[in-house]
Design brief:
275 residues, alpha+beta, seven-stranded antiparallel β-sheet, five-stranded antiparallel β-sheet, 19 strands
Amino acid sequence: MSTSRCLFASMLLAGWGLILGCQASSSKRVKPVEMDAVDSAFAMLSQETVSETVDTVAADVSPAEAWVEVVNTDQLIIFYPRFATIDLVCQTMPNPETDTDVLFCCEAAFTGELKLDFSHSNIADPHVSGGKWYKGYTCKANTGAFMWYDGTWRFAKKPVDLHPVAEKKGMAFCQRLLILDGETQPMWQRMRKNKTQYRALCEVDHRLCIIESKNVITFERFLLLLEQQRVTNAIYLDMGRGWNYAWFRTDSTRVEKLHPLIQIPFTTNWVVFKR
């Protein structure tokens, strides 16, 4: 029996000694041989950063012309999509070749079980996709939600009722809330030194952006870097090898991929910015 994906996420957020009950209730598990193959693929990968990919964008696409503005700092990469709307796409990741209205997409909510068959019940907590509300499974690691409806966005603490978002044909997902209204949210002591490459959906100067660390850093360091960028709101986005694969469109002819070395079949949902 394999360990659930969201259990891994709980370990990442709270440390190995504190498991947050973020495991999906489904008893169906992926076969151990499949997990062994994925683990082996992870082990074979060398440490990568996204800075090499994004630097090529800055070289020949001016910020004024880019559909997604890219800002590099010493330790962060910041993506500002020039979007018209946002959605939570579930089951199948948008295709850069055919979904030409998509500007940026990346993993959003945690996925529970490592399953090949899709179910909304395998996505952490209530969520709204395509204007429809889905229950998901209970994930105690999540402390907040991001919503988009009526042409604007909102970050909020849990509990929050997402039914009104669905009634307005918007989108929403739940995750770990990092910063709300300029205040960094409490974190457990064991979380502070956890190391990975972090990504978050943020608001800076009344603009939405995706901020990612260029390298593996501690959770405490990532929050400090967000504070230094004067982030007023931030919510975690799912990461990890294979889960961190994302892509964005620089203009009508060019797509840039982030962490493309491995793509896994267990991903379930993506926050998507559209033109």
